[in-house]
Amino acid sequence: MSMLVGIIGKPNVGKSTFFSALTENQVEIGNYPFTTIESNKGVTYVRSKCPHVEIGRKCSPKFGKCNEGVRMVPVEIIDVAGLVPGAHEGKGLGNKFLDDLRRADGFIQVIDGTGSLDRNGNFVGHGKFDPLDDSNFVHEEIVLWLSSIISDGLIKGLRKIESEGGKIETFIATKVSGLGIDEKTVSVALKRAGVPSNLREWNDDSTKNLAEELISLSKPGIIVATKGDKMTPDERKKLTEKGVIVVSGDYELVLRRAAKAGLIEYNPGDKDFRILKEDKLNKEQINALEAVRSYIRENNGTGVQEAIEKLVYNVLKMIVVYPVEDETHWTDKAGNVLPDALLMRDGSTALDLAFKIHTDLGNNFIRAINGRSKRILGKEYILKDNDIIKIISSH
Length: 395
Known about the structure:
Blueprint: E1 4-8, H1 15-23, E2 40-49, H2 52-55, E3 65-67, E4 70-79, H3 94-100, E5 106-112, H4 131-151, H5 154-164, H6 168-176, H7 183-193, H8 204-218, E6 221-226, H9 233-240, E7 245-246, H10 249-260, E8 264-265, E9 274-275, H11 283-299, H12 304-315, E10 318-324, E11 342-345, H13 350-357, H14 359-363, E12 365-370, E13 376-377, E14 387-393
Parallel strand pairs: 1-4, 1-5, 5-6, 6-7, 10-14
Antiparallel strand pairs: 2-4, 3-4, 8-9, 10-11, 12-13, 12-14
């Protein structure tokens, strides 16, 4: 799988419903804290225009699917146990929560848009709690968790660097390598955090500031407010003005399940749907679907697909690249057209793509070929969105 997105938030905010809406996986959804104890894992998709329309031959995706020229590119999702204050010290299910997020490339933080829950996920009544408070304390817990990882043995390590020489970014990078953070990222974070050049002046604030920057650089995220169908227009406006994406996981789940059952025609992200088998629906089901239709027309969709695509494309800045073995027909050796669609960081090179496909391909890279122009490309070629690339190696 090309990347991993973590769904985070305090207990009972609707994370599991949001996860189910994205992945169509059946998970336990309950109205009480810690419904999710073991992490739920699944696959969702982001949309991209498929190049197969350019050659008039239908593609054959190994993973994901293609709907009328819209390629559905897979993204792995993990929904972890709810986070409570003190999680970085092991409170609630904190240690498990945080360990589950080590591999995540980015986060979707889910908050309760109706403001009905306290910090521990207990119901206190609609509008009794500020939803934006969730984002503050959850972010704080993640920063404190990373700070504790950096702090472990830090003083001893800094003294060793001071007496024996060495690079502080190398030392820090070793401590955080398990989180997928490299030395280059640490170097940038150290500069942005304003860490003192005199190591004797390093303190707890230095560590926390560094952790803040590392999270921002290596695991950025967005905030999603669930229960959009239960929110007032003023509640919605207040959150959207702060850059929060308001969603209705419940309504998206209804639409995806109805589509899967063949009752309606609906693709994720659509702003409307078409009922296919009205005779198979009772009056209550039809009324429920019309309530959903009214909501998505008024709000330009449920927001669920918009959320994952905003994270992947706008925040994580990913592009879609199609590796092929036959640059003329855009196929693999078996003749499958555009079998793979890979998400790559914007700015990635042809060599990065080779390593993404297989280590041997990267180690033995000779050149690449652009499937559209047939131009020969070197290892430093910067990939573009929707590129079709053949890698040639000596192996």
